[in-house]
Write a structure and sequence with these properties.
This protein is of the alpha/beta class. The chain is about 35% helix and about 30% strand. It has a single domain, classed as Vaccinia Virus protein VP39 (Rossmann fold, 3-Layer(aba) Sandwich).
Length: about 240
């Protein structure tokens, strides 16, 4: 079990208490406005977590498949889908290796659901590239995607020599090390994880290597989505693109 899988399994029952999950309806409104998917659209949610976007999309009539590494998060997603009386196909799989014979019209990977969440054995370029390759293979030709990723611009502005010397931040890989803590009936648990940040030109290059086309790079911090320039101090970048015909 990877460090991230352990954390999300333990944190899953409390994930929906996080402050960044409150704008789900507005975020799905944005997705509909941006892509105008047909009523018959097939949508893939990579790193779907508790299913907050997947369930809302299914509520609006789309055929949604959610993929996540964490069984705990998928259990929450299944409960949310049942409570909403909608059908969401849920699959436990690593986003870097997931493959499906089905082709999707739209793929989303939001709030660092998979992209840039590095396990101890993951290489800082290969992991995000593998996620993009999964997206390319999943999309029908001409299909679109939306990914939100951590911004390395904020990381560089936030961290100084002390964080570099301590190993908290590595400017050579744009990775932060953080201790993730969760609590359950057995007490408090923690695990050290790595989170990768990205800069816009790098995202364009990674997409090109994966055979994807970038159409927009915007500010993408959860709860503050919009067709707007990236702010240097915000948490997330929004990456929008398509699989070429």
């Amino acid at each position: 079990m990877s460090e991230w899988e352990a954390f999300f399994d333990g944190h899953a029952p409390r994930y929906m208490d996080e402050p960044f999950v409150t704008a789900t309806v507005a975020e799905v409104d944005f997705i509909e406005e941006l892509f105008a998917p047909p009523a018959t659209a097939r949508i893939l949610d990579l790193g779907c977590g508790t299913g907050r976007h997947a369930v809302e999309l299914a509520r609006r009539g789309y055929a949604v498949t959610g993929v996540d590494l964490s069984a705990g998060m998928l259990a929450q997603a299944a409960a949310a889908a049942e409570a909403a009386a909608v059908d969401v196909r849920l699959i436990k799989a690593d986003a870097t290796a997931f493959r499906s014979p089905e082709r999707f019209d739209l793929a989303i990977c939001l709030c660092e659901g998979a992209f840039g969440l590095l396990g101890s054995g993951d290489e800082s370029l290969e992991q995000p590239l593998a996620v993009l390759e999964t997206i390319r293979e999943a999309l029908a030709p001409g299909g679109s995607f939306l990914v939100t990723v951590l911004s390395a611009l904020r990381m560089v502005r936030l961290h100084g020599p002390q964080e570099v010397a301590s190993g908290r931040f590595d400017p050579m890989t744009m990775c932060e090390r953080n201790e993730m803590v969760w609590r359950d009936d057995a007490g408090e648990h923690s695990v050290e994880v790595r989170e990768r940040g990205f800069v816009p030109p790098e995202l364009r290059l990674l997409c090109r290597c994966a055979g994807l086309e970038v159409t927009h790079l915007w500010g993408g911090t959860a709860g503050e989505w919009g067709r707007r320039p990236l702010d240097l101090d915000e948490y997330e970048i929004m990456l929008v693109g398509r699989r070429p015909e």
